[in-house]
């Protein structure tokens, strides 16, 4: 009886869901074709010219107001609903990666290019091709029922999610779109990432900190050069760096509350010296820092500074520690997550919606979430029965996506829009 009352209470939403399901099924093969075309013709960040044109033409054909060249190659389309209500944004990222595809597919990538001066293959090795295709599908589904929409939908096709790291330039598509004012009139934003380690037909989410914030670490330790046979006549930056690296390990084991949230500090490269019997003057180290939430980020940064600076001091060396802030942590606000969970359950079926552990990868969707409430989910893209531990991971030449999960992506994103609008009445 209770369930009857609940479903009766959301009767309007149920009929909209049914309409969405019907259109999503109809459009599935088109979404797959779009994705294969994008997969065959991948483009690096801020160079998504072909992709952006196809997107803009599609949105225009659906009667939307379309703005191009937002944050270099981004496209924004607005669908005005038939009734007044909130502005709900949906986001897809469009960029590919400098990876040479190894999959033998009829729509295998044909593109190559130059990345930071190096010739390379280009591949949709993170699955952003599927995000673009799915959102084009959602655009068509919702445009077909615009008179029933109680609000407007902003379709954000974003460039350069993977970031632009060129000498002197570090930038991210979402950050730049926010700076250009894309979020000012938005009430809430939703986004998804196809995920190679979740079965197609399932959805992963997490309330609170979901994906890590990422920052770059750059350290120079300066000692005093000496003959390798008489180390006492100098200050050895190599031994000092070794102590500093070991010191950094105590941040995770002794400072961070790992029962609450994990964190990572990795030194990825260390350079110093030229010859077996010369103690060099300098050692340089670079690394990556992953944290969940601003409070933890502040703590980890502070400890990195204290540990390296004081270990260097104790050795008579000097340390220069620089931390470059890249993406904030992707955090799903618990209130919005609770509100939208029924939409996920309705789209995927209870049992196919998985609450996930935090992910130490990062997403620049976090920049949108810093502006307005935003909910980010993972859409299953692994073949049914696949092994998440051995399935090729994102950013690798063998990365592969099962397209059977796309239609669920179209339905979930469309449900978010009509359900959010329904709640705001
Ligand atoms: Zn990626
Ligand atoms: Zn990605």
UniProtKB/TrEMBL annotation:
Query: Which residues of this UniProt protein bind Mn(2+)?
Result: 126, 128, 162, 193, 395
Gene3D superfamilies, alphabetized: 3.30.70.360, Zn peptidases
SUPFAM superfamilies in the cross-refs:
Bacterial exopeptidase dimerisation domain (SSF55031), Zn-dependent exopeptidases (SSF53187)
GO terms (molecular function) for this protein are: metal ion binding; N-acetyldiaminopimelate deacetylase activity
Q: Which GO biological process annotations does it have?
A: diaminopimelate biosynthetic process
Name the needed cofactors.
Answer: Mn(2+)
What's in the keyword line of the UniProt record? Answer: Hydrolase, Manganese, Metal-binding
- Superkingdom per UniProt: Bacteria
Annotated transmembrane regions: none
Pfam family, any one: M20_dimer
Task: Give the record's cofactor note, including how many are bound.
Answer: The Mn(2+) ion enhances activity.
The Peptidase M20 dimerisation domain, residue ranges: 214-313
Alphabetical list of PANTHER family matching this protein: METALLOPEPTIDASE, PUTATIVE (AFU_ORTHOLOGUE AFUA_6G09600)-RELATED, PEPTIDASE M20 FAMILY MEMBER
Instruction: Give the protein name, as stated in the record.
Output: Amidohydrolase
Q: What is the lineage of its organism?
A: Bacteria, Pseudomonadati, Bacteroidota, Cytophagia, Cytophagales
């Amino acid at each position: 009886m209770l369930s009857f009352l609940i479903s009766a209470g959301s009767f309007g939403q149920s009929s909209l869901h049914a309409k969405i399901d019907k259109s999503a099924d109809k459009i599935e093969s088109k979404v797959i074709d779009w994705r294969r075309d994008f997969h065959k013709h991948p483009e690096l960040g801020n160079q998504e010219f072909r992709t952006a044109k196809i997107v803009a033409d599609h949105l225009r054909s659906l009667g939307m107001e379309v703005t191009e060249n937002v944050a270099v190659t981004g496209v924004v389309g607005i669908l005005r609903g038939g009734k007044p209500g909130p502005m709900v944004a949906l986001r897809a990222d469009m960029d590919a990666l400098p990876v040479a595809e190894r999959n033998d597919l009829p729509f295998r990538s044909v593109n190559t290019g130059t990345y930071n001066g190096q010739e390379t293959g280009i591949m949709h090795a993170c699955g952003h091709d599927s995000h673009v295709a799915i959102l084009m599908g959602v655009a068509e589904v919702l445009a077909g029922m615009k008179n029933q929409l109680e609000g407007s939908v902003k379709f954000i096709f974003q460039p350069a999610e993977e970031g632009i790291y060129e000498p002197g330039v570090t930038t991210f598509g979402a950050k730049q779109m926010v700076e250009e004012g894309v979020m000012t009139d938005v009430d809430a934003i939703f986004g998804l990432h196809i995920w190679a380690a979740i079965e197609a037909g399932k959805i992963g989410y997490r309330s609170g900190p979901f994906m890590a914030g990422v920052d770059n670490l750059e350290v120079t330790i300066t000692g005093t050069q000496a003959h390798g046979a008489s180390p006492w006549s100098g200050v050895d930056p190599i031994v000092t760096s070794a102590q500093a690296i070991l010191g950094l390990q105590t941040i995770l084991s002794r400072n961070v509350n790992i029962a609450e949230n994990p964190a990572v500090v990795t030194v990825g490269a260390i350079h110093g010296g030229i010859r077996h019997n010369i103690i060099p003057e300098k050692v340089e180290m670079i690394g990556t820092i992953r944290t969940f939430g601003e409070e933890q980020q502040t703590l980890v940064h502070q400890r990195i500074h204290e540990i390296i600076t004081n270990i260097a001091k104790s050795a008579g060396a000097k340390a220069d520690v620089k931390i470059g802030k890249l993406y904030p942590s992707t955090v799903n606000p618990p209130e919005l997550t609770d509100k939208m969970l029924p939409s996920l359950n309705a789209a995927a079926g209870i049992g196919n919606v998985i609450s996930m552990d935090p992910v130490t990868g990062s997403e620049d969707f976090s920049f949108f979430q810093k502006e307005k409430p935003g909910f980010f989910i993972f859409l299953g893209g692994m073949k049914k029965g696949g092994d998440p531990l051995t399935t090729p991971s994102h950013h690798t030449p063998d990365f592969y996506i099962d397209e059977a999960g796309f239609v669920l992506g179209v339905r979930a994103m469309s449900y978010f829009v009509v359900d959010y609008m329904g709640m705001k009445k």
